[in-house]
Request: fold
Amino acid sequence: MTRGRRRLRRRWVAAGVAGATVRGALRAIGDEGQPETPWARQNYHGRTVDLRGGPAMVAGLLAGSGALERHQLAAGVVAIGAAGGAGLFDDLRGDAQAKGLRGHLGALKAGRVTTGLIKLGVIGAGALAAAALEDARRGSGRAARLGLTLVDAALIAGSANLVNLLDLRPGRALKAAALPAAVLALKPGEGGPLAAGAVAAIGAALPADLEERTMLGDAGANALGAAIGLAAVRSLTPAGRAAALAGVTGLIFASEKVSFSRVIAGHPLLARWDAIGRLPGEA
Reply:
């Protein structure tokens, strides 16, 4: 088997495993949200949705990463597992008193450590460990490796945070994540299989999310963003990763000043794209 066919086969295997895992997990959840369970949440307009859509996404991404070679598997498990686990902790145990990076830092200044700040710390640590594993595998010089590791870790953690910031309406985060994931899945590079798994997981999760039966929550959104960030680390050049980090960072800081929902609603094309597949009458 040629190298090109082997790469394509790994993408198909990762996509098949990730998509099947998410579909199986969502079938186990069922169709109706149960208000009395700890997984039930009220979404932005009061419909009961099932938070287990997040763990289903995490499971799919982890299963898809299992299609990678052994020397790549550890970084994927660390990045996705840390982001998903920290997000799940915040989903189940978090409070809504502090919002955004500014809110968490303000609470820390007042002497209170929020669950959101703990989540950011765990995601950052997981991203740093995953980036270190990736850059050590590349065998760069020590000084160059340190700089690359910091950029790569910031890209993984920032991507995890950005996808979560977009998870404010049914299907929005999944649609937004699908574009970079698809580009990376088609692009030559070692991140292709992981990105292909993310694309398949998105496709499997999107119907239930749009129909407001499940939601990603922090667990699913953070894990999905971390997976795409790690795929970018594997496939992009150092300059490309720096540019991607600049874009991700710019959007995160912009979210502290403006509402993504308001911006989308104010632009007809974005609003139309955002509403595709939603329940009738829902904005």
